[in-house]
């Protein structure tokens, strides 16, 4: 027996932009090859009824768990097999899904506009098996791409880039760099007391600024292309620094100029995360704590990047100053060793121990810098 899924249907070529205005409990029509964790988190938060993808939600090019995460959340996932009738992007028309067909109401009539492939455990296992088969070649290609571009872009890291004057305040300071990634908001929540401290300097990378503002944490700086940030957050009082690519283009600067918003520029290679990390390093920040920043092959493939040359160089350069806190929320439920001064039944969480570490160390780091 087939379940009928009903609701308004909304479509956009870019999932992150669709999520900015998507009403709750809608059906979404995406153009998103290999769904990534950030998109899936947003879809779950929007309580969508179903995901219909004009591209392949799970290609099998690499291992990913995001389609399964949607199914576990009770959200049906479909790929389009064939389209029968289509005029323009969907903007809230009433639609329903029945027996792997998509039906949309238009001008008082209901039409079957597409045939769908439904994801289930069998389909996912087949895709996972394909990803395992593809892994050796995929990994080799990723490494080759990384080494090739690292060699080409190495010169950018040898000398200090031209930095905006406001970044001088990072000298000798503890800096948190927050990037939007799978479950990064859980890490923000876990580290909330530390991030709210006046001594902490917070750099948000693009859309992570909205995630911080959701918890009433206003970043000191926002770095990136400014293409996934709400207008409200752009006007939160943070210093805006647009990523200018090596060819001189800066989509973020162009966007802000049209909005009448002032911003600084940094011309550099790589991703906006690389720009934020490199800028903090050359600004002589003393400690760099990373939240949500990407490090591995799968995370880069999810973003459509075939390698991580600049990221590899940026992390190599910042080296011992970096402490990566991505995924720290997972330590909440882990047992910890007893601490002297507590009863044997009182075991502090690792999170509380880390927060105490920051509270004790940040002032001492500042004193040493003054001396």
TrEMBL record:
It holds the Pfam family TPK_catalytic. The keyword Transferase applies. One of its GO terms (molecular function) is ATP binding. Keywords: ATP-binding, Kinase, Nucleotide-binding, Transferase. Signal peptide: none annotated. It comes from the Bacteria. Residues 194-235 form the Thiamin pyrophosphokinase catalytic domain. GO terms for biological process: thiamine diphosphate biosynthetic process. NCBIfam families: division_SteA. This is Thiamin pyrophosphokinase catalytic domain-containing protein. It comes from Halalkalibacter suaedae. The lineage of its organism: Bacteria, Bacillati, Bacillota, Bacilli, Bacillales.
């Amino acid at each position: 027996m087939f379940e009928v899924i009903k609701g308004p249907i909304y479509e956009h070529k870019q999932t992150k932009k669709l999520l900015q205005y998507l009403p709750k409990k809608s059906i979404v029509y995406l153009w998103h090859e290999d769904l990534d964790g950030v998109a899936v988190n947003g879809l779950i938060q929007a309580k969508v009824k179903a995901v219909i993808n004009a591209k392949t939600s799970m290609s099998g090019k690499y291992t990913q768990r995001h389609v399964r995460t949607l199914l576990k959340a009770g959200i049906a996932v479909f790929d389009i097999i064939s389209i029968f009738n289509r005029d323009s992007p969907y903007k809230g028309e009433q639609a329903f899904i029945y027996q792997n067909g998509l039906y949309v109401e238009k001008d008082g009539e209901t039409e079957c506009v597409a045939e769908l492939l439904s994801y289930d455990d069998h389909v996912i296992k087949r895709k996972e098996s394909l990803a395992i088969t593809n892994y050796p070649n995929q990994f080799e290609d990723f490494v080759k791409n990384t080494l090739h571009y690292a060699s080409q872009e190495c010169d950018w890291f040898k000398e200090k880039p031209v930095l905006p004057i406001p970044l001088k305040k990072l000298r000798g300071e503890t800096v948190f760099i927050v990037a939007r990634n799978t479950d990064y908001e859980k890490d923000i929540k876990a580290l909330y007391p530390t991030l709210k401290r006046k001594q902490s300097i917070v750099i948000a990378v693009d859309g992570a600024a909205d995630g911080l503002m959701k918890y009433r944490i206003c970043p000191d700086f926002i770095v990136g292309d400014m293409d996934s940030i709400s207008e409200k957050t752009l006007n939160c009082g943070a210093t805006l620094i647009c990523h200018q690519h090596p060819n001189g283009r800066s989509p973020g600067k162009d966007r802000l100029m049209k909005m009448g918003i002032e911003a600084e520029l940094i011309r550099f290679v790589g991703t906006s995360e690389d720009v934020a990390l490199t800028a903090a390093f050359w600004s002589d920040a003393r400690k760099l704590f990373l939240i949500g920043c990407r490090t591995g092959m799968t995370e880069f493939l999810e973003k459509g990047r075939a390698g991580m040359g600049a990221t590899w160089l940026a992390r190599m350069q910042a080296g011992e100053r970096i402490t990566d806190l991505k995924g720290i929320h997972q330590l909440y439920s882990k047992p910890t060793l007893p601490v002297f001064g507590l009863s044997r039944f009182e075991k502090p969480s690792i999170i509380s121990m880390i927060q105490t570490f920051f509270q004790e160390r940040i002032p001492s780091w500042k004193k040493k810098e003054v001396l």
